[in-house]
Amino acid sequence: MDRPVRTKVKDLLHSEPGQKVLAKGWVRTKRGNKQVKFIALNDGSTVNNIQIVVNTELFDENLLSQITTGASIAVCGHLVASVGSGQAVEIQAEEIELYGTCDPVRYPIQKKDTSLEYLRTVAHMRLRTNTFGAVLRIRHAMAFAIHKFFNDKGFVYLNTPLITESDAEGAGDMFQVTTMDLANIPMHGGKVDFSKDFFGKKTSLTVSGQLEGELGATAVGEIYTFGPTFRAENSNTPRHLAEFWMIEPEMAFYDIQDDMDLAEEFVKYLVQYALDNCMDDLSFLNDKYDNGLIERLRSVLGIEFRRVTYTEGIEILEEAVRGGHQFEYPVHWGTDLQSEHERYLVETHFQRPVILTDFPKDIKAFYMKLNDDGKTVRGMDVLFPKIGEIIGGSEREASLEKLEGRIDELGMSRKNLEWYIDTRRYGTVPHSGFGLGFERLLLFVTGMSNIRDVIPFPRTPKNAEF
Questions:
Q1: 126-171+207-453, what's its fold?
Q2: I need a labelling partner for 261 at 20 to 30 A (CA). Which of 63, 197, 202, 360 fits?
Q3: Are 224 and 434 in contact (CB under 8 A)?
Q4: What would be the CATH architecture of the domain defined by 9-100?
Q5: What span, in angstroms and rounded, lies between the C-alpha atoms of 154 and 140?
Q6: What gap in Å lies between CA 236 and CA 378, rounded to an integer?
Q7: CA distance to 43, 50, 111, 350, 430, per residue, from 29 (Å)
Q8: What is the pLDDT of residues 196-240, one digit of tens each?
Q9: Has residue 172 got a pLDDT over 70?
């Protein structure tokens, strides 16, 4: 019998009854009695299953016995209106082909609820669960929306190096890249002779594409990067990864106000896109993990983010301490705010997203534009509920003299920065940019509490599976 073209489950669920269909996927559950079996089939296109109704008289008993949770099958039959609750349509099976069996005893993904902690121990299989299917589909939608947002605004997508000799943040937490024999490292004058290495110099995996992004912005006006970044920081927390993805737009002729306007517009666009295109998955995550998720997503739309200076934020936090609020970390002017401080400003004091500006220069990077007070820089952090900082950015220092002065003040080597300084020597312009951590965004959009659960294959201290 000629089979119809396979249709995805998400499309079948919204199709009209009466047509002959072909569905392929993995069995979520099988139940029933001697006369009829009900198979819940899912192909990963949606969080919802389609029900397959099987008249046992039409099929070999041995075949049906092998159709267990996790098995993969193809089903051909007619789409009919469902007489049961929970679905509008179902498939009356006429043909079933078994692709792959699945041992129901050894299969690590059982029908019962399993913890996210357990699923991390079987990360190679967790992608098949409803939870991670929902997260992956939302992750895809957000990636598409990011490209669409910048494309529609005329930005140029720039690919910046993953292997670099520059430490953009100055933190030093970088993974080295080498082809040298680690058991026989060439030395010269008591130091590693990097001239013998593949690139002839010391290189590392990038922590940011920003500095190279500025080269693009001062050539074509507005660019954005979207790629993996790496940080060898030994932080085993729910908010840190060693390998993560960053979106970093850089814009010539933008000042700090333009930068903040774009950042606010950007995150609102992404949240709206998720609400418009991922509601089935959001509803599932809302019901299973975070019953305030959808309400919280909607809460950032239709309001203006509150903009306050770092100094004003510190004063609010200090007043909270005097009023009896206890923070784990001390707070005073000059300290880098912790997540608990950021969340207090957002969730308790202002009860809306906050953009914090004008930070002490000593806690920010060398490239940020110095304010007239000589103490603060034109940086900005976008703070969100449950997350804290989701975006960090600044107006970049456009003055050659001030940029060189800051590099010298910090005792930084100019050896690897002359190419960057050239952007101020030749046709310097006001320019700004920011970085959005993709996984931080996904924490907010999905309501998940651990950053390891919004990336398919997390890389963390002592963990680099696959």
A1: BirA Bifunctional Protein; domain 2 (3.30.930)
A2: 360
A3: no
A4: Beta Barrel (2.40)
A5: 22
A6: 31
A7: 13, 11, 7, 46, 59
A8: 999 999 999 999 999 999 999 999 999 999 999 999 998 888 888
A9: no
